[in-house]
TrEMBL record:
Pfam families: S4. Residues 7-51 form the RNA-binding S4 domain. This is RNA-binding S4 domain-containing protein. One of its GO terms (molecular function) is RNA binding. The keyword RNA-binding applies. Keywords: RNA-binding. Residues 102-131 are annotated as: Disordered. Residues 103-118 have a biased composition (Basic residues). InterPro entries: S4_RNA-bd, S4_RNA-bd_sf. SUPFAM superfamilies: Alpha-L RNA-binding motif.
Length: 131
């Protein structure tokens, strides 16, 4: 039999929405975790059937609690303890954002010519190496 009380920050950490419990608690304190449109504190007890709106760095989640998880487990196991109710438009926005993500590196094969391309350019322009 599992314990009946479980803090919200510990639950969010155990289902792997946050990397550390501290990050989960901070998110609660800064109003990034809401229940029915109202911010909730990290110490709030979680019950089965509760719905939460959670804003992480990566995306905005809407989850429904289906089971209480006291310890952090593998992702494949953790997903059995909540239902992801995130709206489809949020998922679409994330996919578009990922597709348009720019790392700041220049695209491959664009920019300075390679040694081979440089030789071909010189040859084309009529500049021979050994005159």
């Amino acid at each position: 039999m599992q314990k009946e009380k479980l803090r919200l920050d510990k639950y969010l950490w155990s289902i792997r929405l946050f990397k550390t419990r501290t990050l989960a608690a901070t998110a609660c304190d800064t109003g990034k975790v809401k229940q029915a449109g109202t911010s909730v504190k990290a110490a709030k007890n979680v019950s089965i059937g509760d719905e939460y709106e959670v804003k992480t760095e990566a995306k905005k989640w809407v989850i429904k609690v289906t089971g209480l998880l006291h310890n952090r487990v593998a992702y494949s196991e953790a997903i059995n303890y909540y239902i992801d109710l995130t709206p489809a438009e949020e998922i679409d926005r994330l996919q578009f954002q990922a597709a348009s993500f720019h790392t700041g590196k220049r695209p491959s094969k664009i920019g300075r010519p390679t040694k081979k391309q440089r030789r071909e350019l010189d040859e084309f322009q009529g500049e021979s190496e050994a005159d």
